[in-house]
Design brief:
It is a single chain. By secondary structure, this protein is an all-beta fold. It is built from no helices and eleven strands. Strands 2, 4, 5, 6, 9, 10 and 11 form a seven-stranded mixed beta sheet that branches. Strands 1-3-8-7 form a four-stranded antiparallel beta sheet, with no helix packed on it. Strand 5 and strand 6 form a beta hairpin. The model has no long low-confidence stretch (mean pLDDT 97).
Length: 117
């Protein structure tokens, strides 16, 4: 069955960097747009970054533009999120999402990111 597994979360100091990875299996990865979302307790899950499967066009939340970079590797069925110059506002549970635009949506279990000195 379809599966998304996130990794790379952890504790980072303000100003530091972290790279999240999402490994996909069980579906045609190259036909899905891939996204990273994040959520903190008491708030709605928000879209952080996405990359489509046709033109590899990317989208970024305004607050992460210039700091985060999303990329995908169709040969390895992975999508990564490189996060630089991190702030405490970036602390959240980060989720990977796959969407084919035709009704198929898959989510990972999430990986926790903590930003603290």
């Amino acid at each position: 069955q379809a599966q998304l597994v996130e990794s790379g979360g952890g504790l980072v100091q303000p100003g530091g960097s972290l790279t999240l990875s999402c490994s996909a299996s069980g579906f045609a990865f190259r036909t899905f747009a891939m996204s990273w979302f994040r959520q903190v307790p008491g708030k709605e899950r928000e879209l952080v970054a996405s990359v489509d499967n046709i033109n590899y066009r990317t989208y970024y939340l305004d607050s992460v533009k210039g700091r985060f970079t999303i990329s995908r590797d169709n040969a390895k069925n992975t999508v990564t999120l490189r996060m630089n110059a991190m702030t405490p506002d970036d602390a959240a549970m980060y989720y990977c999402k796959a969407n084919n635009g035709l009704g198929l949506v898959y989510w990972g279990q999430g990986t926790q990111v903590t930003v603290s000195a």
